[in-house]
Amino acid sequence: MKILDVVFIYQMKTEREIDWHGRHHRHGRNQYEFHYFLQGEGVFLNCAVQHDIKSGTLFLSLPQGYHRIQAVNKKKPISYYAVLFELDDQDREIEQLLTRRYSPVSGIQIGTSYRFFFEQIKERGMSLSSNLRRSAEYQLLSFIYTQAEGAEAAQYGDEGNYHIEKALKIMQQMVFDYLTLSMLAQRLQLAPSYLVRLFHKKMNVSPMKYYTKLKIEAASSMLINTNETVCGIADKLCFSSEFHFSRAFKQHTGYAPTHYRLQYGQHLV
């Protein structure tokens, strides 16, 4: 097994974004894709079968199976994780498990408490470290085998994972709001210093750096998919100023916001 791509799509609501994710497409031979929907209203068309999107539902798209996501209510935008992976000829057992457990006719309801799991898959699976990428593949394998038995995969493992799961949910839901470390710790009923140590241990980053990263990912999408000004984006994402936003954006992406728009905006025209 090899993980090819992992993405987190937060609040798919601009016309350009909706068109892009709503395109009727398929992946190559031996390539499978999990879609884990967290929120929003829409329709998922998977191998000619139409499903209403429900929070906490997991779907598997089969090799060369056409699929697309259709938003139906902009006031309730869709958020989801997508994991694209490839099997080789030695993975026959995994292929059998997947085809036996997952059917295009229906999704599987696993609940909305797998943010931490999929976030780890994303961070490790897209890492530059071959060891971390391999660890993500083993995590995904464990998930597949556990699900094949109809059992729940271990989302938490310890109390710390439970706190991280809640923290991720709060931060993902508050991307367009103002949130401080003390506010987050208070909502979790944890000491701020303990939260920082725990988050860094589990996610290898501080909670506020992760929160800023979410905002930058949202800003990247807005720069590519809308005509909103840099100042307007900074304001919507609750940065203290356009300068603060531009500096944070360049630290995370290597580009100034205007240069990022010029570099990547043309790719989705």
What labels describe this entry?
alpha+beta, Jelly Rolls, single chain, Arc Repressor Mutant, subunit A, globular, 269 residues, five-stranded antiparallel sheet
Notes on the structure:
- The chain has 269 residues and is of the alpha+beta class.
- The protein folds into two domains: 2-148, Regulatory protein AraC (Jelly Rolls), CATH 2.60.120.280; 159-269, Homeodomain-like (Arc Repressor Mutant, subunit A, Orthogonal Bundle), CATH 1.10.10.
- The protein is built from eleven helices and eight strands.
- The protein has helices at residues 15-21, 92-101, 115-125, 130-148, 159-173, 181-188, 192-203, 207-225, 230-236, 242-253, 257-264, and strands at 2-12, 31-39, 42-46, 49-52, 57-61, 67-71, 78-86, 108-109.
- A five-stranded antiparallel beta sheet has the order 1-7-2-5-8, sandwiched between helices. A three-stranded antiparallel beta sheet has the order 4-3-6.
- A hairpin with a 2-residue loop joins strand 3 and strand 4 (49-52).
- Helix 3 (115-125) packs antiparallel against helix 4 (130-148) and helix 9 crosses helix 10.
- 30% of the residues are buried.
- The mean pLDDT is 88.
